[in-house]
Automatic annotation (TrEMBL):
GO terms for molecular function: DNA-binding transcription factor activity; RNA binding. GO terms for cellular component: cytosol. SMART domains: KH (SM00322). HAMAP family: NusA_B (MF_00945_B). The keyword Cell inner membrane does not apply. InterPro entries: KH_dom, KH_dom-like_a/b, KH_NusA_2nd, KH_sf_prok-type, NA-bd_OB-fold, NusA_N_sf, TF_NusA, TF_NusA_bacterial. It comes from Patiriisocius marinus. This is Transcription termination/antitermination protein NusA. CDD domains: KH-II_NusA_rpt1, KH-II_NusA_rpt2. The keyword Cell division does not apply. Its main location: cytoplasm.
Length: 410
């Protein structure tokens, strides 16, 4: 019954890890066979009998009876004298089956066996967890804050599985306390050293798309399709939606009366500003809608360079660009086109790229980041406003303005 006692001693693993008895028995047999190979050099002549119903396991070593002087391999052969100590009527040539007790393996082997068994059970458990969460990639998941670190928040789900929410996968305004429930998508699952690493994200655009599925019945039912989502987490997002049923207004259904439907999503995302836009295959119209809330006068598209030149009235330019250039950047990501904004009546404007001999490329790039691609788009802004919007020094901006003004004076 020593083998049975060993099996019972591992009941905490079965209970904690919810491993079924049959699987536990299979792991036990594998571990025992490894121990037998180390002790006897081979396990080929051993029978391991597992009874999952009783939770019992027996080990029998099979040997051939030979004359005492002819014993060459003690693991596979037994001398007649020793055989008759088991049963006194054995004869040379007969098979002897003898039960192996744990004590026969030795104390060190038993300790190693226990450690090996623990390792195998954890490995099995980790494989199950990996497969479970691999199937959940891209889905919304909820877990509780267990520990807050500098670069990540460690979450635990109801089963005690550890989920990592890295700092760069959080919304900038996120603030968590231990015990808080956190929602996000399972972004990736990897096996590292036989241990699954589960990464959650709240910054991924897919999280917003899944929130639409979860919170808006028509999206969940497939009556409304989310065509594309682009985000600057915590700041602004644009969502293009479509419906194959002409009777359904996709934007109205998603936003709800006075924003009632989208309000919960906005709150979940730290008051992220969400523009919901009607998708269309008419590219000119789609770019026009993507620049909302600005009202576009006209759009000129270059399909080869994937650029769109958009003309607006002067008072609409700042709306098109948006705070920090967020609106125009997201409109470009949503449509797949680089968008250049021009003021109405300013056709003689000059692109900033044309000044690369006088203005360093990294400075031009700083203006591009906030949606300013032309000379007049920069000159339209007040100096103090440009200092706030860019990471440039005031003296650098003054020098740029001076260069651009000279162009138009000439």
């Amino acid at each position: 019954m020593e083998n049975l006692a060993l099996i019972d001693s591992f009941s905490e693993f079965k209970d904690d890890k919810q491993i079924d008895r049959v699987t536990l028995m299979a792991i036990l047999e594998e571990v025992f066979r490894n121990a037998l190979k180390k002790k006897y050099g081979s396990d080929d002549n051993f029978d391991i009998i597992v009874n999952p119903d009783k939770g019992d396991l027996e080990i029998w070593r099979n040997r051939i009876v030979v004359d005492d002087r002819d014993v060459m391999d003690p693991n596979e052969e037994i001398g007649i004298t020793e055989a008759r100590k088991i049963e006194d009527d054995f004869e040379v040539g007969e098979d002897v089956s003898e039960e192996v007790k744990l004590i026969d393996l030795g104390r060190r082997s038993i300790l190693a066996l226990r450690q090996n068994l623990i390792s195998k059970i954890h490995e099995h458990d980790n494989t199950i967890i990996y497969k479970q969460f691999k199937d959940l990639e891209g889905d919304i998941y909820t877990a509780e804050v267990h520990h807050i670190r500098h670069r990540a928040v460690i979450l635990l789900d109801d089963e005690g599985n550890e989920i990592i929410l890295p700092k760069d996968k959080q919304i900038p305004s996120d603030f968590f306390r231990k015990g808080d429930n956190v929602r996000g998508i399972i972004e990736s699952v990897e096996l590292k050293g036989n241990k699954p690493t589960i990464i959650m994200s709240r910054a991924n655009p897919l999280f917003l798309e899944k929130l639409f599925e979860q919170e808006i019945p028509e999206v969940f039912d497939g009556l409304i399709t989310v065509k594309k989502v682009v985000r600057i987490p915590g700041e602004k997002a644009k969502v293009a939606v479509d419906s194959y049923d002409d009777r359904i207004d996709p934007v109205g259904a998603c936003v709800g009366m006075k924003g009632s439907r989208i309000h919960g999503i906005v709150r979940e995302l730290g008051n992220e500003n969400i523009d919901v836009i009607n998708y269309t295959e008419n590219l000119t119209l789609f770019i026009t809608r993507a620049l909302s809330p600005a009202k576009v006068t006209s759009v000129k598209i270059n399909e080869e360079t994937k650029r769109a030149e958009v003309i607006l009235r002067p008072e609409e330019v700042s709306k098109a660009i948006g705070r920090g250039g967020h609106n125009i950047r997201l409109a470009g990501q949503l449509t797949g086109y680089e968008i250049d904004v021009l003021r109405e009546g300013a056709e003689e404007d000059v692109e900033l790229r044309e000044f690369k001999d006088e203005i360093e490329g990294w400075i031009i790039e700083e203006f591009h980041k906030i949606g300013l691609d032309t000379a007049k788009s920069v000159l339209d802004y007040d100096l103090n406003d440009l200092v706030k919007r860019t990471d440039l020094e005031e003296e650098t901006i003054k020098e740029v303005i001076s260069i651009l003004k000279e162009e138009f004076e000439d």
